[in-house]
């Protein structure tokens, strides 16, 4: 989400009439619209964007929590620091957690798990046995807020979805699949009405998974669309008075043809729920 916000509104570089990192009204409004569409607060989106802008993709460590990346930005050289994790006194392994990151940058620590990341690591260390872990997870997923937040994790959502489909036989019978679609729509209707949130919990687990899966896909789509519009809005005004060669005109026309076809494809997919790419469009997008 931070990368998407950064694509929509890049953080200002040095120079210009505004100080570094200071956003004008247009940027605020653009990020606010994006935040509302993906269901986040403006301050959250701005925080994600700020952290993403200071951690280039090639410098990030996938196994290290986002919170740690954020905290280490207070260090003199966060890129070198994150590559040298400290030894965890409890496990004896080299790894980063929130408490270790705070110590590294000189912040006060509690000495006991306090953040979500620290508590998660503590729980993981305490339940290495799979049988115990299964019972703990099963109990936790019976909590409404836990189940819904867990399904926002892409990997967890995909795993639960695959296992649920395997156990229920979904995908092997069209009638079963149609029934699941109907149940999914009913769950969304319950969620939108907010008359009885417990109805959503009583839905089939695959229903919840698919609802969150579609929401995250919608968020990704909004990020791509907003990024294109924002980029064009910044660039096109700069073209005033410029002259292009016939070859450049041809190149632009070819790209615009692909963009129009892609927009039609998106509109059709949103209206019908079918995102299949036909041969003609596939050839056009490949430049054939």
TrEMBL record:
Pfam families of this UniProt entry? DUF6192
* InterPro entries per UniProt: DUF6192 (IPR045683)
* Protein's name according to its UniProt entry: RacO protein
């Amino acid at each position: 989400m931070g990368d998407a916000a950064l694509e929509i509104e890049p953080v200002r570089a040095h120079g210009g009439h505004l100080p570094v990192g200071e956003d004008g009204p247009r940027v605020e409004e653009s990020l606010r619209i994006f935040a509302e569409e993906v269901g986040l607060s403006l301050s959250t989106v701005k925080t994600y964007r700020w952290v993403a802008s200071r951690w280039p993709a090639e410098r990030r460590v996938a196994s290290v929590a986002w919170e740690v990346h954020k905290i280490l930005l207070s260090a003199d050289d966060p890129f070198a620091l994150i590559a040298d994790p400290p030894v965890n006194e409890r496990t004896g392994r080299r790894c980063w957690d929130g408490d270790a990151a705070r110590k590294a940058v000189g912040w006060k620590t509690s000495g006991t798990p306090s953040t979500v990341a620290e508590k998660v690591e503590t729980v993981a260390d305490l339940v290495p046995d799979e049988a115990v872990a299964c019972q703990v997870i099963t109990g936790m997923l019976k909590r409404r807020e836990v189940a819904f937040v867990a399904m926002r994790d892409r990997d967890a959502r995909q795993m639960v979805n695959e296992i649920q489909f395997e156990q229920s036989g979904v995908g092997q019978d069209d009638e079963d699949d149609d029934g699941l679609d109907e149940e999914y729509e009913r769950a969304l209707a319950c969620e939108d009405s907010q008359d009885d949130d417990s109805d959503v919990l009583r839905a089939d687990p695959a229903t919840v998974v698919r609802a969150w899966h579609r929401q995250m896909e919608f968020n990704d789509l909004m990020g791509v669309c907003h990024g294109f519009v924002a980029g064009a809005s910044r660039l096109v005004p700069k073209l005033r008075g410029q002259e292009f060669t016939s070859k450049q005109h041809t190149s632009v026309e070819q790209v615009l043809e692909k963009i129009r076809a892609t927009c039609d494809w998106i509109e059709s997919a949103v209206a019908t729920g079918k995102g299949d790419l036909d041969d003609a469009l596939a050839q056009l997008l490949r430049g054939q």
